C-alpha cells in the first residue's frame, strides 16, 4: 500500500510540473466579432505556428513584433491558380 501511495505522489508531482510553460505571446482569436477563449497553451501554439510560417517567407527579414490576421469567407467559391498573386 505504501508503494502505491509513493507512486501516486510522483505522478501528481510530474503532472503539475508539466503544466508550467513559458509564455512568449499574447494571442487573441476573433470569429464573427466574438473573442474566443484561448488557454495559454493554445495561444502559444497559434503564435508559434504563425511566426514560424512567416519566417519562411522571402520578403520578411526579421521576426515580426505583431501579426494581424483577417480571414473573410467568400460568398461563393472560385477557382484560381494557386501560384499567382491576386
Structural description of this entry:
- The protein is mainly alpha-helical and 86 residues long.
- Helix content is 38%, strand content 7%.
- It contains 2 helices and 2 strands, in the order αββα.
- The chain has a two-stranded antiparallel ribbon with strand order 1-2.
Keywords:
86 residues, two-stranded antiparallel ribbon, mainly alpha, 2 strands, 2 helices, single chain
How widely separated are the two ends? 69 Å
Low confidence ranges: none
| Cα-based radius of gyration, to the nearest Å | 21 Å
The percent range for helix content is: 25-40%
In total, the number of strands is 2
Order of helices and strands: HEEH
Structural class: mainly alpha
* Side-by-side strand order of the widest sheet: 1-2
Mean pLDDT: 81
Percentage of residues in DSSP E strands:
5-15%
- Can you tell me the overall shape? extended
Number of helices: 2
Mind summarizing the main beta sheet? 2 strands, antiparallel
How do you describe this structure in short?
With 86 residues, the protein is mainly alpha-helical.
List the helices and strands and how they pair.
Elements: H1 2-18, E1 29-31, E2 34-36, H2 40-55
Antiparallel strand pairs: 1-2
Amino acid at each position: 500500500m505504501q508503494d502505491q501511495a509513493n507512486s501516486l505522489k510522483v505522478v501528481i508531482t510530474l503532472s503539475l510540473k508539466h503544466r508550467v510553460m513559458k509564455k512568449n505571446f499574447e494571442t487573441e482569436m476573433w470569429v464573427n466579432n466574438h473573442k474566443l477563449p484561448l488557454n495559454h497553451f493554445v495561444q502559444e501554439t497559434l503564435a508559434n505556428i504563425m511566426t514560424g510560417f512567416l519566417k519562411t517567407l522571402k520578403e520578411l527579414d526579421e521576426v515580426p513584433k505583431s501579426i494581424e490576421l483577417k480571414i473573410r469567407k467568400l460568398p461563393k467559391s472560385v477557382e484560381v491558380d494557386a501560384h499567382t498573386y491576386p
